[in-house]
Amino acid sequence: MLDVVQGLVEQFGDMVVVQGVDDGPAPAGAGDQTATRLTAADADAGEPGEAGKTAEREERVPVERLAVGDVILVRPGERIGGDGRVLDGASEVDQATITGEPLPVAKAVGDEVFAGTLNGTGALRVRVERDPAESVIARIVAMVEEASRTKAPTQLFIEKVEQRYSLGMVAATVLIFTVPLLFGAGLESALLRAMTFMIVASPCAVVLATMPPLLSAMANAGRHGVLIKSAVVMERLGQVDTVALDKTGTLTEGTPRLTDLRPLPGSGLTEDGLLRYAAAAEHPSEHPLARAVVEAARERGLALATARDFTAAPGVGVTATVDGTVVTIGSPGRLGAADAHPAAAEAARLERDGRTAVLITLDGTPAGVLGVADRLRPDAATATTALARLTGTAPLLLTGDNPRAARRLAAETGITDVRAGLLPQDKAAAVAELQGSGRRVLVVGDGVNDAPALATAHTGIAMGRAGSDLTLETADAIVIRDELAAVPAAVALSRRARRLVVQNLLIAGTFIAVLVAWDLTGTLPLPLGVAGHEGSTVLVGLNGLRLLRDSAWRHAHPAANRAAVPAAAGRDGGRDGAPQLPVRPGTADAPSRP
């Protein structure tokens, strides 16, 4: 278990830094080792002897050796080694692996942090509060393993039936041969009838009824960017009647985008002028919001000046000098914008609309406000509409993001059942509760925080482009092309494959029943029996291969099926009561820049 956790808390070199206070003289021999470690650490830091002056020593230890009460040093850009609370320092931590939030979260003294999350630009001293085996990331892995073990492949039932049928067929063949002999029938006629029975009763067509449709559907889905891991998964996918979707990276693109430019009255700036200052100041920053601003300037073809004297204050914002003007960018509240100031009112309007507001000041004077949001996927509304039509109920949203952001996105896609602020174990519990009430749940997600829910669900699909290794390993299917509309297409294709399986079983069963009855009357010629048996096998195989055609995917894809969804009804309304969902693009809320 801890080996897996160490793999997730990667980029440590399998180690973290543990700090301890030196309360007294070290035992003989210990000082040399401590001195060597301090020398190496001080050489890296460029300030020899500083650690010795603070009476602290640093020791590199494996993650599994951490204990409750240890204090770990997390440098900028490192992953946090254990669950705990910040004792000293301030930074922004990327918690997407745990909560799914698209933007880093400000962390200061007293705030909780999680193992496996990525530290930003500040250094943190963290007191470990959970044993490594009990950390959130370790519990995620444990839940994935436990849920995966509970899945029983449906193929076992088919194999058992096939074995018993074959044994019964052999026994019946022996009886058909021996019983007529006991009543004086000729050896040749009894043998011929028994041989004909064995041929026509053989379950070749029955066995072939299942795999060609499923494998053809898998191959077709694979050509269109959906990797189905097994034929059992392909069959199970068509059984789902409830869909649970993650927010960040699944319904949304997972990347903040600049949505609004609001120069303040009296600033004398146009939108391009405001953006030019903001992008130039943000250009040296690695913050996701900074990348969104710079990308917007590039899309407009703006030439950026060189920023000088750049500084980034974790939890506050950035400051730089652009063309002789001091530009400061950050949260309106943290930059001291008065409530009565037009900037505060503009920021409040943006936040009510579901945006993250960013204030820009020039030489200390508010000049404008930017709005940033995690943009909804272009095909998100189409996909949710198609899923509602297929399952008879609107999908539900399971997210670790804040409720306001979740509700905003749900309104854009027509989702009414929103469950926000969930940790990974909460998502898995929600899925287990749904399945406990008799539903077959399909979970679609992309992050480590979605892995337990994916493993618990009847079927799980991962968005592959941004999916974590654990999520891709846990999911039953992977959308490689990162197209959400491929999810309902795969479900529809699976249902069509299941219908073909039923057709094939009916064809095979009809042929076997007719030929066996004909043979038992004693009038079926052997060549005709062979032709009927082989013909049914070929017919069943060719029928299953129909799903290899590209037209099968086109008919399953929601882009080709944009018919109006029936009027909204509850879950009890069945497929004819699928809720009406709007098909329109939009933007989702994003957490504020700390």
From TrEMBL:
Which stretches are transmembrane? Answer: 165-185, 191-215, 500-518
Q: Where is the P-type ATPase A domain?
A: 56-145
Q: What InterPro entries does the record point to?
A: ATPase_P-typ_cyto_dom_N, ATPase_P-typ_P_site, ATPase_P-typ_transduc_dom_A_sf, ATPase_P-type_domA, Cation_Transport_ATPase, HAD-like_sf, HAD_sf, P-typ_ATPase_IB
| Region Disordered, annotated ranges | 559-594
Bilayer topology term: Multi-pass membrane protein
SUPFAM superfamilies, per the entry: Calcium ATPase, transduction domain A, HAD-like
Q: Where in the cell is it found?
A: Cell membrane
Q: Which portions of the chain have biased composition (kind: Low complexity)?
A: 559-570
Task: Please tell me one Gene Ontology term that the record gives under cellular component.
Answer: plasma membrane
Does Flavoprotein count among this protein's keywords?
no
Coiled-coil region: none
Keywords linked to the UniProt accession: ATP-binding, Cell membrane, Magnesium, Membrane, Metal-binding, Nucleotide-binding, Translocase, Transmembrane, Transmembrane helix
Q: List the protein's name.
A: ATPase, P-type (Transporting), HAD superfamily, subfamily IC/heavy metal translocating P-type ATPase
Q: Which organism is it from?
A: Streptomyces aidingensis
